[in-house]
Amino acid sequence: MSLNQAKYNSKKFKELVLYVAQQFGGEIRGKKRLAKLLYFVDFDFFEKYEKPVTGSVYRALPMGPFPVEFPEAIRELESDGSLSTRADQEWGEGYEPTVVYQAKREPDLSVFSKDEVAMVDRVIGKYRNLTGTELETLSHSQAPFVGTKPGEDIAYELSFYRETDFNDV
Q1: If you ran DSSP here, which 8-state letter would residue 99 be given?
Q2: How far is CA 3 from its chain centroid?
């Protein structure tokens, strides 16, 4: 399945955002952190099962892979009351505020397979203590990002060059 054949599933994407927030105690801090966790879920799943979870298109941006559907999905979650966002000024003047995504309802896990939930749990378990900057550095070192020109869409097939150890799934 090539990137062009991966079909974006808006429902799964939004429920994944809520599930990730739930797994972090109801809220996840940082746009970069959330975006990179979504990337690792989709690309790890593709590497193991040859299909993504959400089918989102990830673009190679300066801070790493970013799902192009992210802004619209967040707007939709906010408008239906499923998610709220706020900006916390954690680091003082001169620094961008940290965006905090807070789930306002339980995620609908029925949209995911057992294997998909297991992969999300694995990614969260593996990366939960990393900051957005640490996840950015990690994503920058991997074949999908390295093998993509800046500003272009990242091909899911590049995940096969990462040689991820899936013995824990």
Answers
A1: E
A2: 16
